[in-house]
Amino acid sequence: MSNDKKAIEKITSMDEDFGQWYTDIVKQAGLVDYTSVKGCVVICPYGYAIWEHIQRILDSRFKETGHENVYLPLFIPEGLLNREKDHVEGFAPEVAWVTQGGAEELTERLCVRPTSETLFCEHYKNAVQSWRDLPKLYNQWCNVVRWEKTTRPFLRSREFLWQEGHTLHATPEEATEETLRILDLYADFCEKVLAMPVIRGRKTDSDKFAGAEATYAIEAMMHDGKALQAGTSHYFGDGFARAFDITYTTKENKLAHPYQTSWGVTTRLIGAIIMTHGDDRGLNLPPMVAPVQAVIIPVAQHKEGVLDACKALEEKLKSVCRVKLDASDNSPGWKFAEHEMRGVPVRIELGPRDIENGECVLGIRYSGEKRTVKSDELERILPALLDEITQGMFDKALENRTNRTYSVKTLDEIDAVLKEKDAFFYIPWCEDPACENAIKEQTGVGSRCIPFDQHAQETDVCPVCGKKAKHIVLFAKAY
RNA sequence: CGGGGUGUAGCUCAGUUUGGUAGAGCGCUUGGUUCGGGACCAAGAGGCCGAAGGUUCAAGUCCUUUCACUCCGACCA
User: Fold this and answer.
1) Bases on strand B under 7 Å from any protein CB
2) Domains of chain A listed by start with CATH number
3) Which residues, other chains included, contact A397 with Cβ-Cβ below 8 Å and sequence gap of 6+?
4) What are residue A344's DSSP bridge partners?
5) Are strands A68-69 and A136-145 parallel, antiparallel or unpaired?
6) CA atom of A334 to C1′ atom of B46, Å
7) Residues of A from 139 to 168 whose C-beta is within 7 A of strand B: which are they?
8) In the predicted model, is pLDDT for residue A2 greater than 60?
9) A186-229: per-residue pLDDT in tens?
10) Is the CB of A32 under 7 A from strand B?
11) What ipTM did this prediction achieve?
12) Full-prediction pTM beyond 0.80?
């Protein structure tokens, strides 16, 4: 047990200080390194590999649904950014500006993109002439910059990586359908791939994207009961098209504005993974995005035949999962703890005893369970085991959310729960922003979304003003 | 942006009160013994003490400025 203690000393307990726990994991697991630029980190190979798996899986799903990848410039001229009033007001406080090129001051300063709606609009104005040009289904993988005041690796950094989809459609119905199709795609990705349950819903007007007609989001609960927005999808109507004068000729030879959407997920998803699945032993990665899905740990590797058996096993398993042999000269105990800390879903122990019996010992990261299995069955067992783990991790996260979710009728009920723990609250709401704000002021929880799953009852009333409720709204503290 | 904390070896920190030769543990390198939950012995390498100014015979230590990290709030993917 003294060994366990030593292992845990590196990582602050999550019950003691969740914020410090998060920072410890990010550093200890080798996901990021800090730099001399505030709010900008090095994403280290292990962290970047997670992002690459997220990219790979999402990208193929975007392409399956007809989207094409493009790349637009890093810089946006000030005049272009200013074309849509709500949009610029929303983003102005957090944009970085380039004012000089070489030795010369620029006549018009350039904003480093915080998001690319304006650039896409400029391009679409040229690219779209006819109804035959629609829909336009573009996506780009890139970095964006937002000059945040307080920063945290993955959760809030000044530069972050993301994908931003921007689409144009002939009708509001088509555009709305696209907006919701992507929201579903995101939700499915989070739940099936990242093993992270999410709640789909629409943002209240006060929480909408700058310039959007409707913003939809998926909200996930972190282990400490706080909410994290894991992805957003916006419906713009024809607002941007009008501001940027994008028109096309319809089948009936009439001039019309197209309807537009945008949607994105970011490297924040890595933060979400950490805070959803991690524990006091470290990171805990969902198998589908884990850079290493199974690590082989030789026991008594100096003994005749052990290392050879491990290498043979590694070769054999390569075709069924991402497997890695740790043949370093650290002790087995050290390796157990290290790979646990890095969140490797499955550990395969192989020592002289096992080799003799034709067995090996599996360690399951998320549950701590150990299983002894026949070595020659591993190829068959592993893929199914990885799926089982994904499901198990999802169930565990869902259980945490269920245990921390309350439907309440009064603000006092919220206060009572918050004394114990952070949680999700379903609150009936009259749709008056003043009441939404009052709930936040009085309890500390803010509106996250109006979930698609509504169980409003006729008798439900807004706990602030007492008027009849129009929606049940999800409230929570948020990252 | 408000309030706390911290910058000294790759990491965690001591040394700062009272100015006087740059320290420890871990990690790293080499050799050897170990190996079923963070092993051990020996020998080594590693620093303009976050940065810039100032005070002083002398600054990690005192003064000024600034940058970054971190935690808690307000705002945000």
Assistant:
1) 1-2, 34-39, 67-77
2) 3-277 (3.30.930.10), 292-386 (3.40.50.800), 405-476 (3.30.110.30)
3) A195, A196, A197, A221, A276, A277
4) none
5) parallel
6) 25
7) 146, 148-158, 160, 162
8) no
9) 999 999 999 999 999 999 998 999 899 999 999 999 999 999 99
10) no
11) 0.86
12) yes
